[in-house]
Structure formats: structure tokens, C-alpha cells
Design brief:
CATH topology: Glycerol uptake facilitator protein
CATH superfamily: Glycerol uptake facilitator protein
CATH class: Mainly Alpha
Number of strands: 0
Length: about 240
């Protein structure tokens, strides 16, 4: 298989795993009357992301998130065409995960929407507040990605752990208010399959703005000049 096709398939598999386990933990929590809990849901997301980063990071860079890919393209770390294919396969993996959840939990009641994130009605979270929460939390997620995975000065073997636990912390903070998606693909697949599109734009606008802000700040303030763009091919 061509290297570029390997990268796209890796993004599909990694995003499938993230959405299947993440959304699946939400469904399991609902069906068991809250036995999983917020901490369990947050850890499910963080641990599966960690596992996929260590498994597939050497193949695709382990984005599994259109907000991360958009940030890489914006920062000049990925060509737009490659980024577009990454996002396409991420969304495809998300939708496949949604259908897998539907096949496993056909009896899940509609209020859980196959684990699709939603704004809290009990806390009266508005579209604007929900978007702001997703912006801030995704900012920290993408900032950590750039710091530990992109900056060559950082050679820590704990890349997956750092990114995975950042997602966990983000869900612990944002989960009660927005579901803590921090990732358009995390919201997309379950929403498509369950036909639940209420406030879906929150999970696109917020993460993408947050990711772009993180990429802009890290590359302008902290990234060495030699690392700021893709290396040019010799003619």
C-alpha cells in the first residue's frame, strides 16, 4: 500500500476507535444509570486516544481530529490537499463508528443520541457559551499537540500520554456543559447516524477556532524559525 494511503487508513482507524469508545462510554453510562460516570467517560476518551497515538502515530501523525489537521495546514506543517484527505477519512471513520454503535445498541433510547455531544439544557448553556468552552478546551489540546509532537526540541516518549490526558482533563471540565467533544469528528458520526443535529455547529466552530488559535500562538511565539514550515523539495 502506498504511504499516503496508509496514512489515510490510519486516520480512519484511529478516529473510529476514538468515536466508538468515546461515544460508546456515553451510551454505556446512560444505559447503566450513570455507572461509568464523568471520570470514566473522560478516561475512556483519553486512554483510547493515547493507545491510538502510540499505535498509529508513526504512520499518520495520529491527528484523528479535523481541528488538529486544520491547525497543521494553517501552520504550514501539512499540504492542504493532504489535510483535506485526512479530514475526509476522519469523518468517514466517525460515521462508521456511529453505525457500529447503532448495530450494538439499537435499543438505546433516543435521548442519548448514540453518544453525540449536546449542550446542557439543565445548566442553560447557550450556543455562544458552548462554543467558547469548546474553543478554550480545544486550544489547550492542540497547544499540547504542537508542543510535544511537533516541536523537535521536545523528545519526550510520553507524547501519547500528554495528549491523551489533556483530552481527559478537557472532558472533565467541559463534559457537563457541552459534552466535551474538542473534535468535530467526535460529534459528527453519532450525530449523522442518530440524526441529531442540534447545535452541531458548536462542535465545528469551537474546536477549529481553538485549534487555529493554538497553532498561531505556538508557531509565532515558541516554534524555532527552522521548524515553522514544511521542508522544501530540492529541484
Amino acid at each position: 500500500m502506498k504511504p499516503e494511503n496508509q496514512r489515510y487508513i490510519a486516520e480512519l482507524i484511529g478516529t473510529f476507535a476514538l468515536v466508538f469508545v468515546g461515544a460508546g462510554s456515553v451510551v454505556a453510562n446512560y444505559l447503566t444509570g450513570g455507572a461509568v460516570g464523568l471520570l470514566g467517560i473522560a478516561l475512556a476518551h483519553g486512554l483510547v486516544l493515547m493507545a491510538m497515538i502510540y499505535s498509529l502515530g508513526n504512520i499518520s501523525g495520529a491527528h484523528f481530529n479535523p481541528a488538529v489537521t486544520t491547525a497543521f495546514v494553517f501552520a504550514g506543517k501539512m499540504k492542504p490537499k493532504t489535510g483535506a484527505y485526512y479530514i475526509l477519512f476522519q469523518l468517514l471513520g466517525s460515521v462508521i463508528a456511529g453505525f457500529a454503535l447503532l448495530a450494538i445498541f439499537p435499543f438505546a433510547p433516543s435521548p442519548v443520541h448514540l453518544g453525540a455531544p449536546a449542550l446542557s439544557t439543565d445548566m442553560h448553556v447557550s450556543f455562544a457559551i458552548g462554543t467558547l468552552i469548546e474553543i478554550v478546551l480545544t486550544f489547550f489540546l492542540v497547544f499540547v499537540v504542537f508542543a510535544v509532537a511537533m516541536d523537535k526540541r521536545n523528545s519526550t516518549p510520553l507524547i501519547g500520554m500528554a495528549i491523551g490526558f489533556t483530552l481527559t482533563l478537557g472532558i472533565l471540565v467541559g463534559g457537563p456543559f457541552t459534552g466535551g467533544a474538542l473534535n468535530p469528528a467526535r460529534a459528527f458520526g453519532p450525530a449523522i447516524v442518530s440524526q441529531f443535529f442540534t447545535n452541531q455547529l458548536v462542535y465545528w466552530i469551537g474546536p477549529i477556532i481553538g485549534g487555529l488559535a493554538a497553532a498561531s500562538l505556538y508557531t509565532s511565539a515558541f516554534m524555532p524559525r527552522a521548524q515553522k514550515t514544511l521542508p522544501q523539495k530540492k529541484k
